[in-house]
Amino acid sequence: MAFWRKADNRKKHQEQARQYIVEDEQLLHTYGLMIDFVALTDQRIIFVEKSWVSKRSEVVSIPYSKIEEIALLKDRRMAISNPVRISTRSNNHQLNLIKGNDAVGFYKQLSRQIMNASE
């Protein structure tokens, strides 16, 4: 299915993420989402939220130090995604990682970056 290949198109996601990277920032990893991608850098998380019903999209960037809570929803056998919720003081974001992407690996990497930011 073309949809699944698009969600796991890591090279394309890395190229797209690089346009949002600033000087002295390092891209660590990208993950495919239901609609687009999420990128982890050494300083922040960047993801693109696209609307299902319009062509509008929004690039969201959250420094790790501003993340208050993350949650991984597990054990959804019939689901096509593994949702990860990221909470900040001002907002909650749900990232729908495609089933088959390493959601636990993403959760661990994000946790590691958050812990490093608080040191």
UniProtKB/TrEMBL annotation:
It comes from the Bacteria. Pfam families: bPH_1. Residues 7-111 form the Bacterial Pleckstrin homology domain. Signal peptide: none annotated. This is PH domain-containing protein.
